[in-house]
Every structure is written in structure tokens, then in C-alpha cells.
Amino acid sequence: MTAGVLFQVVLAGLAQGAVLGLVALGFSLVAGVARVVPFAHGDLVLAAAFLAVLAVSGRTPTAASPSVLGGLALVLLTLAAGAVLSGLVGALTALPQPNLPHRHRGLPGWIAGGLAAGLLLRSAAAFTLPQQAYGLPDPLRIDALVPGGLLRLPGGSTVPVRAVCVLAIGLLVGLGVEMVLARSRFGAAVRAVTDDPVGAALCGVAGRRVLVATFGLAGLLAGLAGVLGTPGRAVSVGDGALLGLAAAAAALLGGIGSLRGALAGGLLVGCLQALAGYAFGAGVQQVVPLLLLVMVLAVRAPPGDRSGLAGRPVRQLRSGRSSAAVRQ
Amino acid sequence: MTAFGFAQSLWLLLAALGLSLPVRYAGIPLLAQGAFMAVGGYAVALLGPGGSGLPLGVAAALAVLLAAVAGYLTALATARLDGGQLALASWALAWLAQLVPTAVPDLLGGTEGFSRPVPARLVSRTLGVEVSLTDRVNLALAAAGCLLALAALFRLDRGPIGLELAGMREGGPLALSLGVPVAARRRAVLTASAAIGGLAGAGSTVLSGVISPADASPLLSLALLAAVLLGPARWWGPVPGVALLAVLPAGPLAVSASGGVPARGLLVALLLLAAILAPRLIRRGSLRQPRAVPEPDAPDLAARPDRLPAPWPDRPLGTGDAQPALELVSASVWAPGGPVLDGVELELRHGEVHALIGPNGSGKSTLLEVLAGGLDAGTVRLGGVPHRARTVTQRARLGVVRTPQQAALPPGLDPARQVALGARRWSHAGVRQLFGTPHSRVQAAELQAWVAGILDAFGLGRLAGTEVVRLTTGERQLLQLARAVATGASVLLFDEPAAGMTAAERAVLRDVLRLLADRGAAVAIVEHDLRLVAEVADRITVLDAGRVLASGTAASVRADRQVQRVLLGEG
Fold it and tell me: CA of A52: how far to CAs of A42, A57, A81, A235, in Å?
């Protein structure tokens, strides 16, 4: 492998990783605030992208670039579809469910609900889109920025301009969201609910509103990931589940609730995926994030960590005690 | 339905029965049963006739073994995960089962998979038999497997293992505090479930003669999950769900999740939604009905502490020997703000009620936590012997049981089951019970009588089958105590047992505490109700700011000037 090829592979991986990072950001937000594993989060990305394309073009998706106005509509529609779908999935899975019958203790309704929502999105989309894979249009027309879609580097090698732009936009938006959440009142509310929902409610934070807004924001990010990530390659409506699992790996690598961590995790997973794909072939490429996810869960997830996504965190007998180990 | 289709559905049922063990009984949201089926299927294809050429019986046994190992490894890797994390990890495993064969095509046949001659032949030279596994023979085998699994689940439902799993499902901390080895049970459940899944996968592969990634789709795992969730939480629970999957036109067998036939995905998604939404609609509000108000003077007076049954014959309460039942030497616990316990020493003696009192924040509950094994501090001697049991479970098994600080009352277990969970024996009666040996029946009857006796002693007999959410605060407290007493522990640690009790319930509590001590148990209570302390305590230890302020007989402590100052604020 020459240095030039390596550079190209890594760059492509980073671009894919930036998209993944946006998905992971939403995953991390939702997992932190709602304390559920958003099993359907990856499916939102593709459902939003396909829904918007069908709404704008009204027929089988093609990769042909839309007009400027059409492109704008496509972007807005994708974002909106992501937010709305995310809100719906959130309503199904994460809103408080009083008196869940105890026959479901142990398998909380949201696990089955999230899985069902993802499967529903995948198979409903597969009804209207029977092909194995489609090319989707690029509303931003990134490839048209430079002739041939390739940037020439000093030294004669070239890099695809798409990868550079996607990486830049993804990182900018991701860091922007992170900054806004770090400084704004809404961000403070999100952090408060993430840390301690009951305490936040006692301080007057409207938990339900924060929850809905978080799902909406995560959906927007998923929509953006759809805009950035789907053009320029063959995508299938069935890819969502694996995308969601890759995002889960990225979010867990970064630590649930840490947005920068999710972005960095996305870049890392994307990079490893690209390298593994280059070295061992496409079959291995798909396996890498799954293996990472299982390993991260097995090795890192500390018992009773509040970022122990999902469900009730194991009750700390007394938090903050240094010498005392709490065991089973 | 053809014999082929019927057999296929029965193998699916077997896998679902295996899955109901973690999902329904132990409350572990496993999403990878399809993956374990795939392990079994690939193993039998690779090792058996047409592969490595081992005899089919040997290959099938190895397939089950491999699946069991996979389940055990999964359990090890996910030992520390909560429900959601485990669901996520096992969901990843379900996808790996489909993707790995395509990633290593040389070893696992790629997207094509393997095909083997049908019908397979079962040959044994030693026995001199040769059976051709036609669809009908395979059907008979699948049916036998299902019947065995159903029988096992039926017996499990009623036995101590079922109780332990229910305890795990309903509340992990509670199960731990009663000495259920949760981690070990969890490994066993996942291993057994995977082995059954592997058997089902092997049987299904032998039947069709084909195994490919399409047979290992994550959709299969979800379909099995939906089948388990659709039925009631009974031993036959998965049967209606699998029957539905078999009857509906787009059965889920051999479907790839991405692409392929979307109708099957849609069907499974709807079944999953139905499984979680239907019970919510049906049962809405059913828990809110108030319980009939009991006659004002009848219930609490029904308590007969004097009838508290004697403990298990082979598990005597206190032995009444001269050694203290439990000794704690120089226990210190530090928090960032300073010491919570500072060099505390304590002795609990057989036949005594020992009260720990002191202002809020003086370290009483922490001390109890240390005694129960929840925190590691100081040296603990049991009956004079330093011991290394360092977890709540280990200590509970040695006869040191504490009621949890916050009322841990799993709503899914009625009072009788909760007490039975405490009373189940530590022996292997569980495994024997699966086979229904005469001895296990005797034990079951003994257990029932023992539980009924304890409930009666605490005045809870009439509530044995009530839903826990309908108990009053005082009744819940009594139930917690009854559960702990039922373990037959010789050292009992109660954290504020009288909180929220009526006067009548308090009288029951007082009598029970006295009686336990008289029978030789070492009882420690943390209590703010000083009148109760005065009535029952033989010995009092006063804590202040993490130090022992005074310790001794009730009278001597009461006379202590310092104690009076700390507790009452006297000059």
C-alpha cells in the first residue's frame, strides 16, 4: 500500500466517519436523555433520505442531480422527515409508560418497541422500493464543485472533493451542535435531564419537552447524515440497522452523553472500517463495527455507570465514596 | 401442512422455548437466539456427513456443545451489562451471525452456504442401527425435543430455580440480598438457552439440508422474540406465537432481513408491536383498583409470632455457643467529605437484639451495609472465624441477611413467592426438581408449609396471593422481614423496620424480633423509634459521626450522659 493510497482510504473513512459521527451524536443524545437504546436510529437516516427523495421526485430514486430549488427542498424535507420520524419513534419507545404490565419486566417495552420501529421502517420502505439498492441524488452538488469531482494535491495525487466536503460539513455541524448544547439554556436542561431526571424535574426542567426536543434534534442530525452520506454510492433501505449499530459502537467508544466523544468515535469507526475494507474486503468491512460494539460493551461498560445507557442505572449504594467498593 | 413444514415450525418452537428461559423467566433481553441456531446449523453442516464426515449423531452433539460454548462466552462477555446494553450487544451478535459467513467465505461457504444430502442418515455401528432421517422421522425428533423442553419448563416454573429466576427478573439487588447467585444463574440460563437454540438450528439444518447466511438472519431472532413476547408468561408461552408465525402466510424462516421479502419483516414488526401494546391496552388501570378494605380489627391481630415455624432442620438458627455470631473489627469507610465510619467495632451475639441508634448521618446504615457485605471495610469474623465472603450473596449464603435499605418489593412476585424466594434451599433440589424425584416433592411440600407458617406468623397469611402494590407501607415492611427470616439466616440485619408501621404492626414486629432472638438468632436493627428499641433491645450501640459513642446493655447506655447529650441535645 503506497502512502497515497493509504491517504485516500483514510480520507474516505474519515468522511464516512463524519457522517457516522452525526448519527452517533444523535444516538448519544437520545441514549443519555431518554435512557433508552435508540435501536431505530440508523433506520431514521435512510428512511428520511428515501422519503424526501420520493416526495420531491415522486418516482424511483435516481442519482441525477436536482435543480437548485429542488435541492433545497430535498435538504429541508430530509431534515424534517428525520425530525418527525425520530419524534414518532421517541413517542413509541421513550415516553413514560406508566404501569407497564409486569410480564414485561426485564424486557422493557422500549427494546421491543425500538426494534419494531426500525424493522417497520425498513420493511415499509422495502415495499415501495423493491430494488436491492439505489443511487440517491446529491442536493448539495458537491461533485460539481471541481471538474471531475477530484481535488488535485501537490505531488500529483488526487482526492475526491466529496470526502473533503462531507468531512468538513459533518465536523462543523457536529462541533457546532456540541458548542450550542454546551452554552445554551436548552443544553443545560439536556445535561440536567441526562444526569438526573428526577432532580431536573424538581428544579423545574420540563423533562418531557426536553425529551421531545432531544428526539427532534437527533432526528435532524440523522436527516443531515442522510443528506451528506447517501449520495455517491449505492444505498439500500435495509442498511439502516447496521448503520445504527455502527453509530452505537461510535457513541459507546466516545462515552454516552459525550458529544465530542461521539464525533471522535464516529471518525475512528469510519477509519477502521475503511482500512479493514481495503485490507480484507467488503465482507469484513461490515463486520468491523459490530465486533467493536461487542468488544466495547464487554470491556468498557462499567457496572452502574450512569452512562450505562438504558434503563435504570444500577443503584449506587453511596456515590462518591472512594474507599468503598460496591459489589454484588 | 406438510411434514417438512411442520417439522420446521417445531424446530422454531424449540428455539423459542429456549429463548423464553432468559427472556421470560430471567428477564434477560437476549436478541441473538437466531445466531445460536446458526452456530448449531453451521456446526452440523461442517462436521457431519458431507463436511468433516463425522457421524450425524456426533456432529449434532458437537453442534449443541458449540452453541452452548457460544452462549457461555456471550454470558461472560455481557456479565456486567444492564438490560439495554445486553440487548444491544446481542443484537450485534445476531447481525454478526449473518455477516461473518460472507466475510470468511472459505471457511463458512460465503453467501451460498452449504448444502448436504437429504434425507440425512443416522448410523451407529456400535448399536447396529441405520435410520434415514426422512421428514417424518425428523418431525418426530423435533416433537420429542419440544415435549422435553416443555416438560422441563413446566417443572422449572414450579421449582426453586424458577423462583430464583423470577427473583432475578423482578429485582436483581433483592435476589442478591437473599443469596441467589445471580451471575452464575445468568450464565447457566444463557448457556442452556443457546444450547437449545443450537439443537434447534442443527435439527432444522439436517431437515432442509441447507444452511446459508439467509437462514441466520437477524429477522429470525426478532421473530423468535416476538413469538416469546406474544404469549403469556407461562411454560407454554411461546406456543401460540410460533403457531401464529407458522400459520400466517409469510413465515419468517429463511428470510434475509435486508431486501428479500419485506412482508415478513412487516409481519414480525407488527407482531412485536402487538406484543408490547396489546397488554398495555388490555390491562390499563387494572392495577389501580383499590383492595377491599379489611375489617378494622381482624387482620393484624391474626399475626401469631409464636407460631413462627422452626427453621430448616439442617440449617439451625443460632447455635448459642459462646462465640459472637458476627464480629466487626476496626471498620473505616471514607467519603470525600470525611470519615463515614471511623474505626468501628461491633459484636452481634446469638440470642440478642442489638440496636444501632444515633443521629442522622452517624453511619448506622453504612455499618449495616458493611456487616451485610455490601461494603468492604474492617475485618469480619463469623462465629469467631475470619471469613473471606466479600459479597452480599456470599454472606447471605453464610447466614447473614439484611433487608435492603429501600423497600425492594418486586411487584411481579406475590408475598408468598417472595417469602418462598427467601426460603428456597441452597441445595441442588432445583436440578432434582426438574426430574420430579420423590424427594423433591417432599421438599416442595415442606417449603410450602414453611412459607405459609412464616406468613401467618407475620400476620400476612391472608395477603399471600395479593399483588404487592396493594400492600400498605407497614405490610411491605413486614413482608421484607418475613423474606429475610425465611432464609433461616442466623444473623439478621434490619434497617429501620418500624418505619411506616401502625401500632398493631409494630407489636407484631416487636414480638417477632424477641422470638427470633430467643430462638438463638443474632438480630441487629437500625431504628429511630427509641420506644421500640427500649422494648426489644438487649444491647445498644450508639453511633455519632462515624464513631461508637457508647455500647453496652440497654440500661447502661441509657444512663450514659454523653448519649443523652447527643440524642436529646441536653447540655
Answer: 16, 8, 7, 15
Q: Which residue has the cell 440480598?
A: B177
Task: Concatenate the DSSP letters of all residues of A116-150 into one string.
Answer: HHHHHHHHHHHHH--SS-EE---TT-GGGGSGGGE
Contact A107 B392 (CB under 8 A): no
Question: Is residue B272 predicted with pLDDT exceeding 60?
Answer: yes
Phi-psi region of B113 (alpha: psi -120 to 50; beta: other; left: phi over 0): left
Element spanning B236, H or E? none
Out of A239, A294, A313, the one facing B89 most closely (by C-beta) is A294
Q: Which of A102, A237, A308 is the closest to B85 by Cβ? A: A308
Does A328 contact B at CB distance below 8 Å?
Answer: yes
d(CA A260, CA A182): 11
Per the CB < 8 A criterion, the answer to whether B554 and B517 are in contact is no
At residue B64, the 3 state secondary structure works out as: helix
- Cβ–Cβ of A321/B87 closer than 8 Å? no
Give pLDDT tens digits for B73-129.
999 998 888 888 899 999 999 999 999 998 888 888 888 889 888 888 888 777 778
Least Cα distance to A261 among A174, A321, A160 occurs for: A174
CB of B80 within 8 Å of a chain A CB? The answer is yes
The interface residues of chain A toward chain B in range 261-300, judged by CB-CB distance below 8 A, are 280-281, 283-284, 286-287, 290-291, 293-294, 297-298
Q: Do B83 and A308 touch (CB under 8 A)?
A: no
Task: Say whether residue A104 is in contact with chain B using an 8 A CB cutoff.
Answer: yes
Provide the shortest C-alpha distance from residue A251 to chain B (in Å): 12
Cα–Cα distance for residue pair B16/B337, rounded to 1 Å: 52
The answer to whether the complex's ipTM is over 0.95 is no
Tell which wins on pLDDT, B440 or B23: B23
Total-model pTM: 0.84
The count of other CB atoms within 10 Å of the CB of residue A9 is 17
What span, in angstroms and rounded, lies between the C-alpha atoms of B563 and B565? 5
Kindly provide the residue ranges of all beta strands, DSSP E only, lying in B177-230, ordered along the sequence.
210-211
Q: Is A202 part of the contact surface with chain B (CB cutoff 8 Å)?
A: no
| pLDDT tens per residue across span B61-84 | 999 999 999 999 999 998 888 888
Determine the Cα–Cα distance for residues A36 and A27; give it in Å rounded to an integer: 10
The whole-angstrom separation of Cα B221 and Cα B235 is: 20
CB-closest option in A106, A132, A239 to B29 = A106
Residues 16-55 on B with a CB inside 8 Å of A are 23, 26-29, 31
Cis geometry, peptide bond prior to residue B410 (ω within 30 degrees of 0) = no
Nearest to B266 among A97, A106, A120 (CB): A120
Q: Is the pLDDT of residue A263 over 60?
A: yes
Tell me how many degrees the CA angle B550-B551-B555 measures, rounded to the nearest 5: 100
Output the CA angle A183-A188-A190, nearest 5 degrees.
120
